[in-house]
Each structure stands twice: as structure tokens, then as C-alpha cells.
Write a structure and sequence with these properties.
Blueprint (H helix, E strand, L loop, with lengths): L28 H9 L7 H9 L3 H17 L2 H14 L8 H49 L3 H6 L2 H43 L1 H47 L1 H9 L3 H24 L2 H27 L7 H12 L2 H28 L24 E8 L12 E8 L4 E5 L6 H7 L8 E6 L2 E2 L5 H6 L1 E5 L9 H5 L8 H10 L3 H6 L17 H15 L3 E5 L7 H15 L3 E5 L11 E6 L2 E6 L1 H7 L2 H11 L7 H6 L1
Parallel strand pairs: 3-8, 3-9, 6-7, 7-8
Antiparallel strand pairs: 1-2, 1-4, 4-5, 9-10
Helix pairs in contact: 1-13, 3-5, 3-7, 4-5, 4-12, 5-7, 7-8, 7-12, 7-13, 8-9, 8-10, 8-11, 11-12, 17-19, 19-20, 21-22
Subcellular location: Cell inner membrane
Main location: membrane
GO biological process, one term: oligopeptide export from mitochondrion
């Protein structure tokens, strides 16, 4: 195989949907709130979110009940600890009451066991529901994107689309497992703990509540510092990932080796790696002294409670016992993290809504090109089968400036079944646009495009495209075997059919020379093949489809002279017996066309055979002369023909 070929993919404009977004409970809260504020406004958002979870209503109800029960049970053991101390270890009689203590210990163990079993059940339910909804939503969004018109993808970055499918949809599972569970669980835990503390001793509760806000504020301050460092760490990781993707892709490696810039790339990666190491150390060390103080403070609260309790007991408070003190400090120690979770829940709910809003924004996009309710299938046979007509067609791209001239302006032509028609002209004249309008990848602004005598707007697009084969300059092959790439056109194709198509495309002998034959993996974008080999595989793929109309969009313009001749021979074979439309840059490839349309400034300015157009001594003759002899005066037609 030949280690060349390929090319860069076209870069899309940023589009109106912004950069990739979306996370749950992570990063800098200030940045997260700003990001949430940029989310689109979707009518009836809560209702639409609820509709997604409606099929799982029973599981959700059970989950909510489990969360409430688990949270409530979490504060029962401390109350049993009080009884264990006061009635089992240190009863009024002085001697430990072992039967009573055993009963209380057994009850505590049973509650711990029950809580864990309920927790496992709850986790399974939330994971199942959250991921099921996430999976269904991802497929729904992917399906919807498949129906979007071509212009949507030319104006929207691929990374943004991927972010919708991965980051935003992936956050849906977190809504259930994190946000809802956190809201319910923390709320019930805080409420139950507060009630338990009051039941144990209201005076100690006042002491604990006075100290708790100080601890919460301290924890929040430390959390904000760490979040800012974490955000910088993530940005650094993203930069390292970008460097890796840019430089370790096939195109990136070829570029760096071609310009001997490997050391430069190593330096870039090393610098960012040093930054990452520094940030990781800072993240781990951030607030360590502060955390030490917080830890001291947290450990001091029970001691302060002991001190206050002793003062109260010395002043005659008979209701405070050793069991009360131990139980109270146990409950109080479990109150901190639920309180911090509740303080975060408002941001989590806002973030969850923002995720759903961005997903629904895409789901609400209406494809610009859709089948009409009475769309017809393309007739399988008839006198007009394979005929392509443009009837006074005007077209301007959707994102073109209003005052700019249309890409195509009142274009009319007819290509009869079986004809070989070519479109030539200067760059930007509108040639490729013609090839986009025939399969209805774009909609004509004015006029009609007819296929087989029927307006393409009256045809089902899937049926229309199934009768059209396209071979473009930018050949796309999957990172798969040659056979799998060929079967993309016909999944049930037999080995004999693959070989027949490959022979017609003059590529079978080359494939057979590979050690793995048709099971050869072509590499990313087909980089293990030469440009000519990739192009001939693309032709074989189209031949498997066996379309009535074949569109060749500058299919040989990126090839060298030898590869061009081989591919051109394959194209000549592919075009036999079918309507062929060639968008040509090299005029030498279309001199035998039945009709040549010369496009300039969005209009057809000339049409005819090669000989007719040379004789007319117009735009075509000038273009041909420039390609044959270079810029200069147009040669007379007889001399050109003799060449």
C-alpha cells in the first residue's frame, strides 16, 4: 500500500450554538452560573423533562420512597446509641444490662444492614432509569441530527454537535443520580437530624446550630478555592488533549515530519505537561492549612458540646446523660455534609435545566428540507428515468449576505437519460452547487429541479438519493476493512459482487495484492491507501449502489497524472449506461462529454460539445487554452483539436 493520499476535512464556521458546554456539580460555581445563564430558553421545559421520565414513573416513585426512608434511618442509630449507653451500659442500677444492650446493638446492626440494602436498590433504580433515559435521548438526538439539512453541518462545529451528544446528554443520568437524590436525601437527613437533636436536648442543639454556620462558611470558602484550581486543571488537560489530537493524528504527524517540527511539538506538550503538574500539586495542596483549621474546628465541636453539657449538668440538668451526649455529637457530626449539599442543590437544579435546554434546542430544530406528506417514490422505469432538468433555478446559500448575488441565477438545462454532461467554469462559479441541488441536499430558492420528470420536492428524499451515486474529490473511507467500506453502499453484497465492482473500478488487482485482501484495514480516512486507490474504492462503492445518475464532483482533480488516468478509466467504465454529471476542473477529462455547460457568475454562459465550444472561441476556449498552454491568447480550434 502507498502511504500518501488524504486531505484535510472542511472546517465549519462556529455557528449560532456556541462552544461545547455542560457539567453537573463540578468546577467553579461562579463560572457554572454564568454558563447556565447562557442556556437557551425553552417553553414548558419542566413539563418536557417530566415527559422523558414518565415511562419510568413507578421506578421513580420507589426511588423517592427509598431515598426518604434511607435518609430517615440514618439518624436512628444515634438515638439507639443513647439507649445503649443509658439503658444497657450504664443503667440506673449500675450493672450493665446485657440483654437490653444486645437487643439495641442487634437493632442498630439491622438498621445498618437495611440501610445498605436500600441504598443498593436505590442506586440500581437511579442508574437504570437515568441511563435508560440518557440512552433513549442520545439516540433520539442522533436520529434528529441525521435528518438535518447539509447547511446545518456546514455552519456548526463538529465539536459542538459531539458535546450535545456526549456531555449534555451524558449529564442527564446525573440529574437523577445526583441532583434529585441529593435534594431529597440531604433535605430529609437535615430535617431528621435536627428533630433528633431537639429530642435529645434543645439546649445543646442551640450550641451546635450557633457553631455550624461558621463551619459551613469555612468549607465553602475552601471549596471555591479548590474549584478555581480544578477549573484551571481541566483547561490544562483540555489543552493537552488538543495538542495530542492535533499532533498525533495522521495529518498532524505528516505535517510535523514534513517540516521537521517534532521537537517544537514535544516542547509544546512538555510545557503544558509542566503546567499540569504544577496545577495538580496546587490542587492537592490548596487549603491544606485551612483544612487543618477546619478539621480542628470540626473536632472541637464535640468537645465544646461536652463542656457545655458538663456545665448544664453541674447546674442541675438531670435530663443530660452520657448517652445523650454521645448520641448528640454523633447526630451533629452527620449534619455537615447534608447541609453543604443543600447549599449546592439550587445550582445543581439550574445546571440540570441548562443541560436539558441545550438538548431540546437541538431537538426543536426543524430540518429545512423535509418530505412533503404526499411524497412519491422515484419511478423504477420509464422514458424519463435518469433525466435531470433545471427549470429557471435560482439558489442562494442560507447564510449568504442578503445583498450578495445568488450562487445560481436563473439556470436552465436538460440532461437526457444516458448522457454524459459536464459542468466547467472558474472557481466559485456555482458548479458544485448544481451537484448539491440534484439530490436535494439544498433546496432551490426559485425555479424547479426535476428528476425523471418530477419535481424533487415531490419525491421522497431517501428514494431520490437511492437513485443517485456521488463520487467527490474528498473521498471518505471509514477506519475499517476495504470490504466493510464497500458494503456501506450495499450491506448484503456478496464477495462476488464486491469483486465485480472492484474490477469495474480497476482496483481488484491492487486489493488482491494486499496480504489481507478485502479484509485490509484502510486506516483513519483511508490514509494507508494512495489517493488513486481511495478514489477507485469510492468508485467501486458507488458501482455497488448501481445508481441511474452518477455525479462526479471533481473526482480526479487532486490526483497525479498517472493516478488520474487510472481513475478516469474507472470512471469511464462506471458512467456507461447511466446519466453522468461531471463537475470538472481539468478539462482534459471531459472532452468526450455529450454536452458541456460552462458556468460563470452563477449562470450558464455556454453549452455544447468540446468542438462546438472551441469553435465559439468564448469562455470555454479560454479556459482550455490556459490549461493546455498556460495563460495567453486563445489558439484556433483546429490546432487544439489536432493536439
Amino acid at each position: 500500500m502507498h502511504g500518501h493520499g488524504g486531505g484535510s476535512a472542511p472546517s465549519g464556521r462556529p455557528g449560532q450554538f456556541g462552544r461545547p458546554r455542560g457539567r453537573i456539580s463540578g468546577g467553579d460555581p461562579v463560572a457554572q452560573r454564568a454558563e447556565n445563564a447562557e442556556a437557551p430558553r425553552i417553553p414548558n421545559l419542566l413539563g418536557r423533562i417530566a415527559a422523558l421520565f414518565e415511562p419510568h414513573r413507578t421506578a421513580l416513585t420507589i426511588t423517592i420512597v427509598l431515598v426518604i426512608i434511607s435518609a430517615a434511618l440514618s439518624v436512628v442509630p444515634p438515638l439507639l446509641v443513647q439507649r445503649a449507653f443509658d439503658e444497657g451500659l450504664f443503667p440506673p442500677g449500675g450493672e450493665p444490662n446485657l440483654p437490653r444492650l444486645a437487643t439495641l446493638v442487634g437493632l442498630m446492626i439491622a438498621i445498618y444492614l437495611g440501610s445498605q440494602l436500600l441504598g443498593v436498590w436505590q442506586t440500581w433504580l437511579t442508574a437504570t432509569v437515568g441511563n435508560t433515559v440518557m440512552g433513549a435521548l442520545r439516540v433520539r438526538l442522533f436520529t434528529h441530527l441525521q435528518a438535518m439539512e447539509l447547511s446545518f453541518f456546514t455552519r456548526t462545529k463538529t465539536g459542538i454537535i459531539q458535546s450535545r451528544l456526549q456531555n449534555d446528554v451524558g449529564g442527564v443520568a446525573s440529574v437523577l443520580t445526583n441532583t434529585i437524590s441529593s435534594l431529597l436525601g440531604n433535605a430529609v437527613t437535615v430535617l431528621a437530624a435536627f428533630v433528633a437533636m431537639l429530642l435529645l436536648d434543645w439546649k445543646l442543639t442551640i450550641v451546635a446550630l450557633i457553631l455550624m454556620p461558621i463551619l459551613v462558611i469555612a468549607q465553602r470558602r475552601v471549596g471555591q478555592v479548590r474549584a478555581r484550581i480544578a477549573a484551571k486543571t481541566q483547561e490544562s488537560l483540555s489543552d493537552m488533549t488538543a495538542i495530542t489530537q492535533e499532533t498525533l493524528s495522521v495529518s498532524g504527524i505528516l505535517l510535523s515530519k514534513s517540516f521537521t517540527r517534532q521537537q517544537t511539538e514535544i516542547g509544546r506538550y512538555s510545557d503544558e505537561n509542566d503546567n499540569q503538574v504544577r496545577l495538580q500539586v496546587s490542587q492537592q495542596m490548596s487549603g491544606q492549612w485551612f483544612f487543618a483549621m477546619v478539621s480542628i474546628f470540626l473536632s472541637s465541636i464535640p468537645a465544646i458540646v461536652y463542656l457545655v453539657a458538663s456545665l448544664l449538668m453541674s447546674n442541675g440538668s438531670a435530663d443530660i446523660t452520657a448517652g445523650t451526649i454521645v448520641a448528640f455529637t454523633t447526630v451533629q457530626s452527620r449534619l455537615l455534609f447534608p447541609l453543604l449539599g443543600l447549599m449546592r442543590v439550587a445550582l445543581d437544579l439550574q445546571t440540570s435545566s441548562a443541560l436539558f435546554a441545550r438538548i431540546f434546542q437541538y431537538l426543536d430544530l426543524v430540518p429545512a428540507i423535509q418530505d412533503s406528506p404526499a411524497a412519491l417514490a422515484v419511478p423504477e422505469s420509464g422514458p424519463a428515468t435518469g433525466r435531470v432538468e433545471f427549470d429557471d433555478v435560482t439558489f442562494a446559500y442560507p447564510d449568504a449576505a442578503g445583498e450578495s448575488r445568488p450562487t445560481l441565477d436563473a439556470v436552465s438545462f436538460t440532461i437526457e437519460p444516458g448522457q454524459f454532461a459536464a459542468f466547467v467554469g472558474p472557481s466559485g462559479a456555482g458548479k458544485t452547487t448544481v451537484s448539491y441541488l440534484i439530490p436535494r441536499f439544498y433546496e432551490a430558492t426559485e425555479g424547479r429541479v426535476l428528476f425523471g420528470g418530477i419535481d424533487v420536492r415531490d419525491l421522497a428524499q431517501q428514494s431520490l438519493v437511492s437513485h443517485i451515486g456521488i463520487v467527490s474529490q474528498e473521498t471518505y473511507l471509514f477506519h475499517a476493512t476495504i470490504a466493510e467500506n464497500l458494503r456501506y453502499a450495499k450491506p448484503d453484497a456478496t464477495a462476488d459482487e464486491l469483486e465485480a465492482a472492484a474490477r469495474s473500478a480497476s482496483i481488484h488487482d491492487t486489493i488482491a495484492s494486499f496480504p489481507a485482501g478485502y479484509d485490509t484495514v484502510v486506516g483513519e480516512r483511508g490514509y494507508r491507501l494512495s489517493g488513486g486507490e481511495k478514489q477507485r474504492i469510492a468508485i467501486a462503492r458507488v458501482l455497488l449502489k448501481n445508481p441511474e445518475v452518477l455525479i462526479l464532483d471533481e473526482a480526479t482533480s487532486a490526483l497525479d497524472a498517472i493516478s488520474e488516468r487510472v481513475v478516469q478509466a474507472a470512471l469511464d467504465t462506471a458512467s456507461r449506461g447511466r446519466t453522468t454529471i461531471a463537475i470538472a476542473h481539468r478539462l482534459s477529462t471531459i472532452v468526450a462529454a455529450d454536452v458541456i455547460f460552462v458556468v460563470d457568475g452563477g449562470r450558464i454562459v455556454e453549452s455544447g460539445t468540446h468542438s462546438d465550444l472551441l469553435a465559439a472561441n468564448g469562455v470555454y476556449a479560454r479556459l482550455y487554452s490556459e490549461q493546455v498552454t498556460g495563460p495567453g491568447p486563445v489558439l484556433d480550434p483546429p490546432r487544439l483539436l489536432s493536439e
